[in-house]
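[recover] target loaded
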């Protein structure tokens, strides 16, 4: 019985974790972004320094990922 329940529990936890971003924070940086943006995929930051500051300002211990989009950063 437990062998059938375990995969379902893992699947539910993965879905909840990704949906609620309980597994961490993600910030995006792009040469086409702006440091006044929220750092999302559709509205990335322009500089690594702004992403660093946003990462330091988070109030949790979950992992933080900073994604670098294509192009040359200053």
């Amino acid at each position: 019985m437990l062998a059938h329940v375990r995969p379902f529990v893992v699947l539910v936890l993965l879905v909840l974790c990704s949906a609620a971003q309980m597994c961490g924070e993600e910030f995006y940086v792009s040469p086409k972004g702006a440091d006044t943006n929220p750092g999302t995929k559709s509205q990335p930051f322009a500089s690594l320094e702004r992403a660093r500051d946003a990462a330091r300002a988070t109030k949790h211990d979950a992992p933080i990922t900073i994604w670098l989009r294509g192009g040359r950063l200053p």
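[recover] notes: The first strand starts at residue 25 and ends at 29.
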